[in-house]
Structure formats: structure tokens, C-alpha cells
Design a protein that fits this description.
Number of domains: 1
Number of strands: 22
Low-confidence stretches: none
Strand order of the largest sheet: 2-5-8-11-16-19-21-22
Largest sheet: 8 strands, mixed
Number of helices: 2
Structural class: mainly beta
CATH topology: UDP N-Acetylglucosamine Acyltransferase, domain 1
Strand content: 25-35%
CATH class: Mainly Beta
Distance between the termini: 31 Å
Order of helices and strands: HEEEEEEEEEEEEEEEEEEEEEEH
């Protein structure tokens, strides 16, 4: 027996919508499933957390979330486009408490005493996020970006660029050769 949900179990999750060849580990945690849309050929590995309160999570086609990836949409949204890969222990946070000390924090405190920052996160096509990265609210990752391990992504990025560091710093342009492979791949599967 493998660790992924069967077709019947996947249906019982009550996702908003999901495509073909969707592999979700039974060891993952999903909150707000009715606000999560998953495309075709998606793999979500062990111990991933997908959490939505009033927002939404949209995952495109040919996407992988490796072990321990966390997507916290909260009241906002997270959108992963096609061919996105997210490395182990990466945290994508569209919602975050205010850490300035001007307000209180944590989910057990009534809303009137808190100042929560909720802004959408968009990760465009062919982006790859290395292990242990953190993506903060309001960030748009442009098409084709690549991030080294442990990068803090707190600002929008330039397309087809490679970033590393805390905070993320562009170190060079990324090659686009994979676009030729994508065309060949689509030609083969059609």
C-alpha cells in the first residue's frame, strides 16, 4: 500500500476541484479543502500543510510540494502556476501577524487586539523554490525564478532570475532552455 490517497479518499477530501493524476500523501494536513483547487499531475508529499480560512489556494499542473511544505493562505490566496516545484520545509505565508509590538499576536487572541497582514502570493510558471525558503505575504514570484536553499523571499522578483540569501538577492539570470523542453513535452503528450 502506498502513502497516497486512493481515488475514493481523494474525493472524500471535498476539494473545490482537482484534476487527473493528483497524488496527496495521507500524512499531509488539509484545512479548508473546499477552497483548494488542484490541477493535473500534482504531487503533495508527506507532512505538507495546506491551510485556508476564507481565502483560496490554487495549484496548477505539473506541480510538486515536497515533504514538510506549508501553504498558509488564511484570509488571502496562494496561486502556484504550472511547473512549480517547492523544496522541503519551505513555508509560503500569505497571512502573518504584526510583529512590531503594537498589537497582540496568535490565533487565540480576539481579532480586535491584532493586526494581521494578509496579501496574496503568486508563484509563476517554471519557478523552483529551494529547501527551507520562506515566502512572505504580498510577494509575486515572476516566471522562471529559482531560489537557493534558505532564501527569505520578501519582495517581488524579476523573471528568469536566480536568487539566494536573507533577504533574497538576485545573483544572475536563469537560462530559458527548459522552454524548448516544455514545448517538446507538450507535443509528446498531446
Amino acid at each position: 500500500m502506498n502513502s497516497f490517497y486512493s481515488a475514493e479518499e481523494l474525493k472524500a477530501l471535498n476539494l473545490k476541484l482537482y484534476g487527473d493524476n493528483v497524488l496527496i500523501s495521507r500524512k499531509s494536513s488539509i484545512y479548508g479543502a473546499d477552497k483548494i483547487t488542484i490541477g493535473n499531475n500534482v504531487r503533495i508529499d508527506d507532512f505538507c500543510i495546506l491551510s485556508v480560512k476564507y481565502g483560496e489556494i490554487i495549484i496548477g499542473n505539473f506541480v510538486q510540494l515536497t515533504a514538510y511544505v506549508s501553504l498558509y493562505a488564511g484570509d488571502s490566496s496562494i496561486h502556484l502556476y504550472d511547473f512549480v516545484g517547492i523544496g522541503t520545509r519551505t513555508c509560503v505565508m500569505a497571512t502573518s501577524d504584526d510583529y512590531s509590538g503594537e498589537t497582540m499576536t496568535n490565533p487565540m487572541i480576539p481579532e480586535k487586539y491584532k493586526a494581521v497582514n494578509s496579501c496574496p502570493i503568486i508563484i509563476k510558471k517554471h519557478s523552483i523554490i529551494g529547501t527551507g525558503c520562506t515566502i512572505l505575504p504580498g510577494v509575486t514570484i515572476a516566471e522562471g525564478c529559482s531560489f537557493g536553499a534558505m532564501t527569505l523571499i520578501n519582495k517581488n522578483t524579476e523573471q528568469w532570475s536566480i536568487y539566494v540569501g536573507i533577504p533574497a538577492k538576485k545573483i544572475k539570470d536563469r537560462k530559458r532552455d527548459l522552454l524548448i523542453l516544455e514545448k517538446a513535452f507538450h507535443d509528446e503528450v498531446e
